Amino acid sequence: MKLDQTLVNAAIALLEKRFPGAEGIAAAMYTEDGDILTSVFFEPEWGSAMLCAETGAICEAEKLGKRIVASVCVSRQTGDSPMVILTPCGICQERLFHWGQEVEVAVPTPSDATKWEVKTLKEVQPYYWVNAFKTID
Ligand SMILES: [Zn+2]
What's the domain count of the chain? Predict the structure, then answer.
C-alpha cells in the first residue's frame, strides 16, 4: 500500500475522535496487506514516560505479525490550530526501519506543514547508521 490521503484521513479522524476540540497527536499506518493501524500519543502527567503517537500502531503490527509499509503522524496544538504533518521522530524512524528503508512516511512540505509529501526512510535518513555495515559485506 502506498501512502495516500486515505491514510492521512485515518490519522486525522482518530485525532478528531479521541481529542475533540483539543490538542492531540495521532498516527496511522498501512500494513503490507492493506490494513490500517492507528494510535495516539500517551503523555502521563509525571515523569518522562511519553510515548509517540506511532508507538501503539508499531506494537500492534508486531503483535499481529504484520509489516508496516507507510506511516503518517498528524498533530494540532489546540482545537483551533491547523492540523500539521509531523515527520516521525528519530526514535520512531529507528523503529520503522525494522521493516526496511523503503517504508514510506509523510513529511510536511517545506512551506506549509498542513500539506504532506511522501518520503521513504532512505530519503529521510540517507546516512542511516546501519548502512556502514552494508559497505563491508
Ligand atoms: Zn516518535
Answer: 1
| Residues around ligand 1, an ion, CB closer than 5 A | 52, 89, 91-92
Q: How far apart are CA 91 and CA 116, in angstroms?
A: 21
CATH code, domain with 106: 3.40.140.10
> In angstroms, what is the span from residue 53 Cα to ligand 1's centroid?
7
Pairing of strands 84-85, 104-109: unpaired
Cα(94) to ligand 1 centroid in Å equals: 9
Provide the residue-wise pLDDT of the chain in tens; the chain has 137 residues: 899 999 999 999 999 999 999 999 999 999 999 999 999 999 999 889 999 999 999 999 999 999 999 999 999 999 999 999 999 999 999 999 999 999 999 999 999 999 999 999 999 999 999 999 987 76
